Amino acid sequence: MNKACSYKVGVTGQKWDEAEKLQWLALQTIKRSYKTEVLDKLTQLGSDYHIEQYGALAYNRSKYPLYAVKSLNFDVSKKTILVTGGVHGYETSGVQGALRFLVEEAKKYQQFFNIIVVPCISPWGYETINRWNYKAIDPNRSFYENSLAEEAANIIAYIKPFIGDIIMHIDLHETTDTDNSEFRPALAARDAVSHDNWNIPDGFYLVGDTLNPQKGFQKAIIDSVSKVTHIAPADENGKLIGTQLEQNGVINYANKTLGLCAGLSNAKYVTTTEVYPDSPKVNDENCIIAQVAAITGALEYVLNT
Question: 294 phi and psi, to 5 degrees?
């Protein structure tokens, strides 16, 4: 079924022009505070890290500054670990999991790695609880040269000097029920195409890289997360979100081809986490803990490999 026919913006069978995108933008409202839930927490990190601004969103530069958190003393003899969250602003535990990692776990790994954490790549999306940015562009399909999504373009430029030293990149995401109720119908309407609903997996899973699957790395993360929350089972066809399962809790995408944030670097070890916050088996805190367990499980594997 063509979901464009039931969406609140646009005409069935016609791609959105600027008028439809502005109409969609006018429907978006602020639902939570980037300042309170992200920026204020960064200031509480004190002197444990170096916090630096790497840009700001043109939509409102004073309201939406972009920050990265780095180890205090970068050492050229160490490899660099990159943690990103909030590429899709509506995926809450990605942002809060990155911040929790900084508070509870990151300091102990600074002796082994240079650490960069970018907790909220899409702050407008965070405040409006949106997958897209304010131009109706999906940042997580926009990680390519001369990106049209400034969220992606800003972090690409910031990370460029570190690209050769990044050994691991973990990108924190969620799969939510609103993927089917809102975001896929919006995508179908915007692009005038048909989108079938996914079966939303009940549980945590990972998206590895088709060209660089690193099975042991992915398994180590699943094993770590399974201690704190449940892992999503495959559907009756052996798939998660329409993709064939590679191993327990793991599917693979072509990260760079699809313009995913996980394709940002040339890191040896790369994965995207997917938490399911709408499961009756979890709550907000459990989702944050799962993200932290994913990061630490990944770090322990890299440290001991």
Answer: -65, -45
